[in-house]
Amino acid sequence: MNSRHIPGRRVARAACALGLVWSVAASAHVFPRTQVPAAGATVSPPGEVRINFDGPLEPAFSSLVVDDATGKQVNIAKSGVDAQHQEVMAVALPPLQPGHYTVHWVAVASDGHRTHGNYGFDVK
């Protein structure tokens, strides 16, 4: 065996291992797949905000909060993860006045990895 090729093999093996670790780590996070109301949408007053994520959520640590244009939280009810579809989280809303609203979400995957974000929609 030629020793000049061994370091190349080690580098190739290390690169493959790193790629595998990266793909496993990346798949551990959950992100929104669909949102209702959708990001940037103008809608009639919705009765709830619902986000469908690309993987199951940890209910105890995942949440949705909806703020009005002044930054005041408008949802009174606590958000929850659907028991039958653990990739879905929703929060009930009171009747909303016309204006801009921001949804803040925190999603913790069932393996403990946390992601978060926000998006806005308008009520006509």
Describe the structure.
This protein is α+β, with helices and mostly antiparallel strands. The protein contains one helix and eight strands, in the order αββββββββ. The strands form two sheets. The chain has a four-stranded antiparallel β-sheet with strand order 1-3-6-5, with no helix packed on it. Strands 2-8-7-4 form a four-stranded mixed β-sheet, with no helix packed on it. The longest helix is centred in the N-terminal third of the chain and has 22 residues, at 6-27. The model is unreliable at 14-26 (pLDDT under 50).
Secondary structural class: alpha+beta
Strand tally? 8
Query: How many domain regions?
Result: 2
What series of H and E elements makes up the topology? HEEEEEEEE
Helical content class: 10-25%
CATH architecture of the largest domain: Sandwich
| CATH fold name of the largest domain | Immunoglobulin-like
Instruction: Tell me the name of the CATH class of the largest domain.
Output: Mainly Beta
Give the number of helices: 1
**What is the beta-strand fraction?**
35-45%
Query: Which strand order do you get reading across the main beta sheet?
Result: 1-3-6-5
- Distance between the ends: 74 Å
- Uncertain runs are 14-26
Would you tell me the overall average pLDDT?
87
Describe the largest sheet: 4 strands, antiparallel
Spatial shape: elongated
Radius of gyration: 21 Å
Keywords: Copper, Metal-binding, Signal
GO molecular function, one term: copper ion binding
InterPro entries: CopC/D, CopC_dom, Cu-Rt/internalin_Ig-like, Ig_E-set
Subcellular location: Cell envelope
